[in-house]
Predict the structure.
Amino acid sequence: MKKILITGGAGFIGSHLVRLFVHKYPDYFITNLDALTYAGNLENLTDIENSPNYAFVKGDITDESFVEALFEEKKFDAVIHLAAESHVDRSILDPMSFVKTNVLGTGVLLNAAKKNWTDLSNKLFYHVSTDEVYGSLGEVGFFTETTPYDPRSPYSASKASSDHLVRAYHHTYNLPVVVSNCSNNYGSHQFPEKLLPLMINNIMHSKPLPVYGKGENVRDWLWVEDHARAIDIIFHKGIVGETYNIGGFNEWKNIDIVHLLCRIMDKKLNRAEGESEKLITYVKDRAGHDKRYAIDATKLEKELGWSPSLQFEEGLEKTIDWYLANETWVSRITSGSYKQYYDQQYTKR
Ligand code: NAD
Ligand code: DAU
């Protein structure tokens, strides 16, 4: 039985990936290591928590002795590393927690793998990263796997550092690694600090919709399950030492997405046409706000046969329906420490 460690499996993308692997590969044993920070939520995984090929371990990837003991005990064959501090706005408020988890935490995992994998055959360290490491684009062009790194927020700089560490362990110690850099994900179970779930939640509660700057920044959106599918394909078919970009070929200006959400939700909530759009409020821009991200995922499509499965409008409807049907999931989050974060981030902005 192949023993796989997935880190950050109680988060947004991680929980989709863990579910996919637990269902699809009954002959793999999946250990989900997650510190359950504000972003980690075991409610995301209740449907698989008793599966015979799954175990959850609560722990911090920056805790070196704990991580090394876990590797020694479990004898993992592979790691898929997603655990991270993931929100750009929080990285502006508290950069050091991003340096700690994303840089140090990745280093600790790499070291544990290096120490324990005396025989490197059939081992793999898969590092899940972001397109933000490439910096910001102007009106035209795309990020490819050879675009030079130019991270501009504490979040993206910490992810870029972790990518470099992963590649350094490959070049220096021959650690078998693969890296993927993905664009903005959306879908169910996303923490309502990110654009889409925050706007959906605020529309549901008729609260102001805080659009940064003029709302003209562009992001490339991908259905989270398509990201999980891409990771599955790269994990099994990707070439060791390579990098794969993952994206939706689906660019949207923020303000256009917010208008679209308002229109769809007015219908679903039986509101008059245009009612939710009145909630749109332009607020002070994010510091150092990257203008545009756009991924060229041709390599992944051509070499490994992946492509996005879902049209954006269809995915958005599914996402909205999930949030409308899971108000308790959202309200358990928004009634806790989220309130404090929200006030700090948005009040008097
Ligand atoms: P998330 O914030 O929803 O989840 C992160 C998870 O990591 C949480 O469960 C949290 O508890 C856990 N975690 C945080 N610090 C930890 C620590 N020190 N030890 C152990 N666990 C810890 O993030 P996400 O959006 O699911 O992103 C997952 C990964 O994918 C990240 O590495 C992120 O950089 C990358 N990524 C995200 C996106 C996106 O659009 N969300 C796009 C591209 C890449
Ligand atoms: O590109 C991949 C990255 O996408 C991931 O690596 C990150 O983990 C993920 O958080 C995401 O980063 P962004 O900063 O692009 O996502 P966010 O949802 O925070 O913001 C999307 C856009 O919406 C961005 O231009 C800022 C804007 N925004 C965001 C929020 C939360 C607003 O206008 N208002 C808001 O309240």
Observations:
- The mean pLDDT is 97.
- Residues 241 and 349 are 44 Å apart (CA to CA).
